[in-house]
Amino acid sequence: AKDQDWWRGAVIYQIYPRSFQDSNGDGIGDLAGIVRRLPYVASLGVDAVWISPFFTSPMKDFGYDVSDYCDVDPMFGALSDFDAVIEAAHGLGLKVMIDLVLSHTSDQHPWFVESRASRDNARANWYVWADPKPDGTPPNNWLSIFGGPAWQWDARRMQYYLHNFLTSQPDMNFHEPDVQDALLDVAKFWLERGVDGFRLDTINFYVHDAQLRDNPSLPPELRNANIAPEVNPYNHQDHQYDKNQPENLAFLRRLRAVMNGYNAAAVGEVGDAQYGLQIMGEYTSGDDLMQMCYAFEFLSPDMPGADGVADVMARLAEAAPEGWPCWAYSNHDIMRHATRWNMGTDALRLMNTLMMCLRGSACIYQGEELGLPEADVAFEDLQDPYGIEFWPEFKGRDGCRTPLVWEAGAVNAGFGDGKPWLPVSAAQQALAVDQQETDSTALLHHYRQTIALRHAHPALAKGVQTGMRATGDMLSFIRQHENEQLFCAFNLGEAPQEVLMPVGDWKNAAGSVQGAVAPGEGAVRLGAWQCCIAIKTEGE
Ligand code: TEU
Ligand code: CA
């Protein structure tokens, strides 16, 4: 197919459906709301949307606990509404990627209801069941990310079942061939319905060690970006056996084989602070595996400086030279980066330009293009079980999940008429879409420009990346594709700095994008948070 490589270098806009647009006044965003706002998404110039789960679910983890993979939760609409999303998106030139959560189901899924009914039913081995130790304790030391042991006692089977997340998210047993077949059928169902790809939740958790060996402990310096090891002991373990098993690859190959023929692409979420880039290398090198893995490197607690970015790129080049990352600064699981990195608008602009110039695909989380700060959510309003468990050390994920602000001054900022499931942030109102549309200096327009810049230059979207240098706060590198070369330099700091231009006849490529410094030969001076993107075309 002609655009088989559409995912390479693509810009993907993440929609969290509960909080995007409510169309019927029940306070919860829905698929009809997405249809209504898709023209806005298309106006950003992005290539695709990734829609977080909208499947039937008891919503214990807000859709990441699925009880029917092949239907839409009534809260979000019906299958016909999803068809309308596909039709509208395709009409606007947008690909649609849906979020498949295959590693675990809800405990309300009929498969689990059957599995837990006895030790000898047809689906008895569809989940990870294990006998207790002689003293009654769990079979090993595995822990849940959301707190406590990864094992939940079941009084009927008199066994434990595995859950990497909530107790209501039992882990599927990928060692069971029928489980793999059933999940591949789910992928096929949605491909037949017209989706263009998948964001695959927790792709590295699919297979567990069949021998259930204990995880070793982790050296204390290797911390999780989101939550300190002191607060959650999960981050004290080296997760050698509960995830990242080599058998994952065999399942991913089967999944890819199903996707072939549909021109579909997948971005696999690999949550692993320690081995993330290695796994990306394993999972995305070769035409029979995943196209992309979602990178956690820039979801860091602190803003990566020039050194930090260069270091990530060096490690990536080492661990995954053929691999393809999908970068993100924000998502529905982590404090919005405007707040997490305590940035002003100039810094937000520069970091966005940087991502649009880096080798890889890119995810933009709804509201990031507005520069939204994290919302303050009071304990009484918290919805996220992860936040409720670890409050106040870790405030959970609600602060990045509040309703998107569309029209300042409108009821609930234009999200919908009913009381929203999380309060609309007062601090975000002034940054609403309608305010920024009429202000040509607003961040929203900058996002449009950088996305357009990336699309105008195949070197940025899919070129090779060389000459990575970090000197003080200055980061520079070259992207190249066919006869086009771009020199990209970023001042990731307040103090003006100079960067040496490589020899050649460079022209300013960035147009009205910030830091429109006209480069000549020699050095270019960049002010605080400025960049220079220069182009050279061979044979002209
Ligand atoms: O997240 C996987 C993951 O690694 C997260 O647990 C992350 O570390 C955590 O949310 C802390 O910020 C995916 C989904 O993105 C998340 O929303 C789900 O809760 C989770 O899987 C379980 O399905
Ligand atoms: Ca609704």
UniProtKB/TrEMBL annotation:
Organism: Actibacterium atlanticum
Signal peptide stretch: none
Keywords linked to the UniProt accession: Glycosidase, Hydrolase
Highest taxon of the lineage: Bacteria
The name this protein goes by in its record: Alpha-glucosidase AglA
GO MF, one example: alpha-amylase activity
Alphabetized PANTHER family for the sequence: ALPHA-AMYLASE FAMILY MEMBER (PTHR10357), NEUTRAL AND BASIC AMINO ACID TRANSPORT PROTEIN RBAT (PTHR10357:SF179)
Family statement: Belongs to the glycosyl hydrolase 13 family.
Keyword Hydrolase set for record: yes
Domain Glycosyl hydrolase family 13 catalytic: 14-401
InterPro entries reported in the protein's UniProt record: GH, GH13_cat_dom, Glyco_hydro_b, O16G_dom_2
Taxonomic lineage: Bacteria, Pseudomonadati, Pseudomonadota, Alphaproteobacteria, Rhodobacterales
